[in-house]
Amino acid sequence: MANIKSAKKSIIQDARRTEANTSVRSKIKNDMKKIEAAVNAKDTDKANTELKTFISDIDSACSKGIVKKNTCAREKSRLNKKVKEMSK
């Protein structure tokens, strides 16, 4: 355990940030699962709406540094491709 006041504060801040970042990552993963489910169910409207929310969520996570830029681009590309193939 830390003895210095600033170190104690740092531990608290790290825990707070970790919790926030974990919730953002889980939201992104849940969005991905919803899109996959909509694609498997051949529900075009739901897949498109879920894709829009996923893109906005992952872009905001990328801008905050929670998700790497290339990971963001790769996931958006893969899911967009699946939704477009399903629409045909």
Task: Give a written overview of the molecule.
By secondary structure, the chain is mainly α. The chain has a single domain (5-87), classed as Ribosomal protein S20 (Methane Monooxygenase Hydroxylase, Chain G, domain 1). It is 86% helix and 0% strand. The protein is built from 3 helices and no strands. α1 (5-40) runs antiparallel to α2 and α2 packs antiparallel against α3. It is elongated, with a radius of gyration of 17 Å. It starts with a helix and ends with a helix.
Brief overview:
The protein has 88 residues and is mainly α. It has helices at 5-40, 44-64, 69-87.
- What number is the mean pLDDT? 95
Query: Main β-sheet: number of strands, strand sense, barrel status?
Result: none
Could you state the order of secondary-structure elements as H and E? HHH
In the CATH hierarchy, the architecture is: Up-down Bundle
**C-alpha Rg, in Å?**
17 Å
Could you list some keywords that capture this structure?
mainly alpha, 3 helices, 88 residues, Methane Monooxygenase Hydroxylase, Chain G, domain 1, single chain
Describe the secondary structure blueprint for this structure.
Blueprint (H helix, E strand, L loop, with lengths): L4 H36 L3 H21 L4 H19 L1
Helix pairs in contact: 1-2, 1-3, 2-3
